Amino acid sequence: AAEPRPRDQRVAEPGALHFFAQRWLAGAVAGGVEAVVTMPFELTKTHQQVTSMQAGPGASRPPLGVVATMRYVYGKHGIKGLYFGLPIAMIQTAGKVGIRFSTFATYKRILCKDKDNPSPTEQFVAGCAAGATEAAVWITPCERIKVLQQSQVDATRPIHVGWLSSLMMLLREQGVPGLFRGLTATVLRNGISIGIRMVLYSKITKALVDARGGTKRAWDPLVGGAAVGAITTVLNNPIDVVKSRMQADQQGNGAAKRFRSTWHCTTSIAVEEGFSGFLRGIPARILKISLGQAVIFFTYEHAKSLAESIL
């Protein structure tokens, strides 16, 4: 029998770039669909997480739930209010999901001894690396702009009315570092979450197939995606609150910086709001991320098959 190819040569196999492009395209399509479907929940989550910060320490904080917040935003701004920041959200989500699946597949080719049957540890490490990559390269600057826009949905005179004008203002006033506020929190949140999601998704979908004696169903990715979305949301909500506060801070146009660092933001929330401050937005996030991951995995599986047939 032929000797196995050395591990350090597998990534350079013919078609590696083609393989990467197929998965990036499928991921980008899945991300764009997810952004449109889940945008109202994303805006609701951000609104809940940053409302108390804008009110200031000691100010009253309206106890708005998911439905009440949506009705409040809809009552003031109509349906367009629930889709405030959609263009940057679509750009961000299409890019990040494309990066996620293409780098995850690439990291698996590098790390796994048996790329057709990776171990849970190999999947977790590849997932963490993919999540950290998408966070550092793409998510942080995109979410900085998106959160600034969404945090001003109630502003009488918002200064962030378009993603391009927001980008130019941040670059002019704060330079490139202004786009990367919240980088540490975003990398931590994303890296761990994607690692867990990839392992659990594989386990859940395999269990569904095994329970039917090896028969696959088209809706398996919906179930697996929704389940991993809910689980990781509960686990990473505290760091997501910190990320949102960091990215809504120092909005530009001369605004002062409130938080010196990720740790300062974390301790400020703990002192001013207690543990409940880290749970803000969790119902909206569970709805948004469970639905979003179901859409992403379902769309990705089908888009990947299509991409492989046409590319």
UniProtKB/TrEMBL annotation:
SUPFAM superfamilies listed in its UniProt record: Mitochondrial carrier
Chief location category: mitochondrion
Keyword Repeat (UniProt): yes
Membrane-related topology note: Multi-pass membrane protein
UniProt-annotated location(s): Mitochondrion membrane
Keywords for the protein's UniProt record, in alphabetical order: Membrane, Mitochondrion, Repeat, Transmembrane, Transmembrane helix, Transport
One term under GO cellular component: mitochondrial membrane
Solcar repeat ranges, renumbered to this chain: 18-110, 118-207, 216-306
GO terms assigned for molecular function: succinate:fumarate antiporter activity
Pfam families for this protein: Mito_carr
PROSITE patterns, per database record: SOLCAR
Domain of life (superkingdom): Eukaryota
InterPro entries: MCP_dom_sf, MCP_transmembrane, TXTP-like
PANTHER family according to UniProt: SUCCINATE/FUMARATE MITOCHONDRIAL TRANSPORTER-RELATED, SUCCINATE_FUMARATE MITOCHONDRIAL TRANSPORTER
Entry's family note: Belongs to the mitochondrial carrier (TC 2.A.29) family.
Name this polypeptide is given: Mitochondrial carrier protein
Higher taxonomy: Eukaryota, Sar, Rhizaria, Cercozoa, Chlorarachniophyceae
